Amino acid sequence: MRRPQLILLACALPAGIFFLAFWLLPALQLLALPAREGASAYFAVLTQPRYLTSMLQTLTLSVVVTLATLVLGAAVGLYLARQRFAGRRLLLAVLTLPLSFPGVIVGFFVILLGGRQGLVADISSSLGGERLTFAYGLLGLFLAYLYFSLPRAIAAYTAAAEAMDPALEEAARSLGASRIAIARDVWVPELAPTTLACGAIVFATAMGAFGTAFTLASKFEVIPITIYDEFTNYANFALAASLSIALGLVTWAVLFIARRFSGEAGA
């Protein structure tokens, strides 16, 4: 064996060992665990109402968060890319600051706003009403997921909009195209790869978010918390593995489809 090949093998060996020990073996173990309870354990998310409800709630929340993130992110990103004003860089830095926050901190922010001792509860109480709270249900999770995901979309759309060819928009405008037509025929096709890629990442992040859900999901169950409960509180590892496989398959399928369509859109 030649010296370059030996060097390449020596460099690849640690990576191969790490991949085998910390990804392949645990993944194989995860796939095998439900078999201990029989083949039906693999379909628990479809056959047992509680787990099906948890998965559907997670899917619905993730889709709504993804759509809201893409709409708001595109609007803000296009504005920041097209406008030049004092403090623009500072504003962009502030808008993307939540990228540095873990999910637990984002959940804590929502509790400070809409929790039992939060700002909204204090204001509603001081006005003579009941202490209003929204942090621990669907609205709290939606706002937290949106807060966590929106900076990524803003950064992605700002970069993509800055890279757009202005000649395309000028040509459409010179032909008498309306703003709606320009948005439909120029902006949407040019930003399609970014929309697909960003949407897939936001969706996958929302599906698997644990820290934020662990902080807020006391009245609205999502699948990561269901998995956590099964293997932590009930030591039901086979069922937890089955739900993990279902979650992974859904997320992987969305990422795969987005990658395929993103490649076609960018071609």
TrEMBL record:
<dbReference type="Pfam" id="PF00528">
    <property type="entry name" value="BPD_transp_1"/>
</dbReference>
<dbReference type="GO" id="GO:0005886">
    <property type="term" value="C:plasma membrane"/>
</dbReference>
<keyword id="KW-0813">Transport</keyword>
<dbReference type="GO" id="GO:0055085">
    <property type="term" value="P:transmembrane transport"/>
</dbReference>
<keyword id="KW-1133">Transmembrane helix</keyword>
<comment type="similarity">
    <text>Belongs to the binding-protein-dependent transport system permease family.</text>
</comment>
<feature type="transmembrane region" description="Helical">
    <location>
        <begin position="133"/>
        <end position="150"/>
    </location>
</feature>
<feature type="transmembrane region" description="Helical">
    <location>
        <begin position="90"/>
        <end position="113"/>
    </location>
</feature>
<keyword id="KW-0812">Transmembrane</keyword>
<feature type="domain" description="ABC transmembrane type-1">
    <location>
        <begin position="55"/>
        <end position="258"/>
    </location>
</feature>
<feature type="transmembrane region" description="Helical">
    <location>
        <begin position="237"/>
        <end position="258"/>
    </location>
</feature>
<feature type="transmembrane region" description="Helical">
    <location>
        <begin position="59"/>
        <end position="81"/>
    </location>
</feature>
<keyword id="KW-1003">Cell membrane</keyword>
<dbReference type="InterPro" id="IPR035906">
    <property type="entry name" value="MetI-like_sf"/>
</dbReference>
<keyword id="KW-0472">Membrane</keyword>
<protein>
    <submittedName>
        <fullName>Putative spermidine/putrescine transport system permease protein</fullName>
    </submittedName>
</protein>
<dbReference type="InterPro" id="IPR000515">
    <property type="entry name" value="MetI-like"/>
</dbReference>
<feature type="transmembrane region" description="Helical">
    <location>
        <begin position="194"/>
        <end position="217"/>
    </location>
</feature>
